[in-house]
Amino acid sequence: MSRRRPTPRGPDEPGGRPGLLISAPRVIPASPGSGVLAPGYVAIVGGRFTEVGQGPPPRPPDLSLGSGVLVPGFVDLQVNGYFGADLMTAGAAGWGLVTGRLPETGTTSFLPTFITAPLAELTASLQAAAAITAALPRAGARVLGVHMEGPFISPGRHGAHNQSWIIPPSPAAVDKLLAAGSGLVSLVTLAPERDGGIAAVEQLTAAGVLVSIGHSDATARQVAAAASAGARMVTHLYNAQRPLHHREPGVVGQALADARLTSSLIADLRHVAAQACVIAFAAAPGRICLVTDAAACAGMPPGRYLLGGEPIELPPWGGQLPWGAEPPVRADGTLAGSALRMDAGVANMVAAGISQVAAVAAASRVPADLVRRPDLGRIAPGAAADLVWLGDDLRAMATWVRGEKVYPAEREAG
């Protein structure tokens, strides 16, 4: 990455199509050590970034933004649903709706998430997802695989999951899910303290699946053993897991102290208080990634929706949180996913005192690196040209995927 004005390159893509040059008051590339380019510019050719720099662009820009900040497209590793569609039970139309509209929130890549259900239902959902994703249009958010949040979790830390459907992680059950997904299973959240848990971590890791510790009552020693077996993530830090205690650090303490582990954080300020978010970022710099854990109610009015095929209720927004981010609940009041936008999650972290650079990286590069996609989540030469223009309030104003503007579709930004 250059902070000096680079040698100008040709403005055209191979084949004669014009490239795109955008200037902005600020650019946050989210690459390690990159900071803020103010002012800055990016050049896109053939769906990839070719230049990023600070200062005046090398030629008159095609688009000059007068406010806000350009950041990489967000990568969300936990999306149960959105815009009324529960992805575990939705058909092709529901998946198309979610992938088409997620860029409105700044998210350009994501993992559809299936929570605990009977094994036969999970395999059927995975088989359907494999067929659906193969036919999705390119003009929307990328599907990076599927996140299986369960069914190999702790009955004592089940949260909004149906306790009666939780099963131990037997080799046969793991194999069944992997086979049903036909390579689509990218992330599995499990409780390593369960019988067969460490063996399952090893089995999944050997299959190229990212393993995350979550919905777990594991001790710090058991979490460390899971990391030694290949686990590299902790799912929604603080929630549905053994908390930090000064004599037994639990899942939370080991997650923050163990350099092998990156923790996701639901940044709606209801699942986790602002002070606890600040503690996490301070204790594990570069090892926190933001997730929405969005359910079908996200982007929708208050009412009844589904999470994993079972009902949840989105309460009326009381005005305490930005953009209607009150979380949905099960009938017993248990928090059940969220109604969070990723751009709102970034704004929430900045309001809590996290720097814009750290908050943006936690929503882009850090999760991309977790799922081994170094071509995503950063503005750097050679990376995919997924880009978000955030306004001064950090709300998404325009989004590009593969260098093509997908939001708003009806007018040019600027």
Quick recap of the structure?
This protein has helices spanning 92-101, 119-134, 171-181, 197-206, 220-229, 250-257, 274-283, 342-352, 356-362, 365-370, and strands at residues 20-24, 40-45, 48-54, 63-64, 69-72, 74-79, 81-82, 85-86, 107-115, 142-143, 146-149, 185-190, 210-213, 233-234, 262-266, 288-291, 303-307, 310-314, 387-390, 396-401, 404-407. The chain has 414 residues and is of the alpha/beta class.
Structural overview:
With 414 residues, this protein is an alpha/beta fold. The protein has 2 domains: 20-71 and 377-407, Urease, subunit C, domain 1, CATH 2.30.40; 74-370, Metal-dependent hydrolases (TIM Barrel), CATH 3.20.20.140. It is built from 10 helices and 21 strands. The protein has helices spanning 92-101, 119-134, 171-181, 197-206, 220-229, 250-257, 274-283, 342-352, 356-362, 365-370, and strands spanning 20-24, 40-45, 48-54, 63-64, 69-72, 74-79, 81-82, 85-86, 107-115, 142-143, 146-149, 185-190, 210-213, 233-234, 262-266, 288-291, 303-307, 310-314, 387-390, 396-401, 404-407. The strands form 5 sheets. Strands 6, 9, 10, 11, 12, 13, 14, 15 and 16 form a 9-stranded parallel sheet that branches. Strands 3-2-1-4 form a 4-stranded mixed sheet, with no helix packed on it. Strands 5-19-20-21 form a 4-stranded antiparallel sheet, with no helix packed on it. Helix 6 links the parallel strand 14 (233-234) and strand 15. Helix 8 packs antiparallel against helix 9. The protein is globular. The model is unreliable at 1-17 (pLDDT under 50).
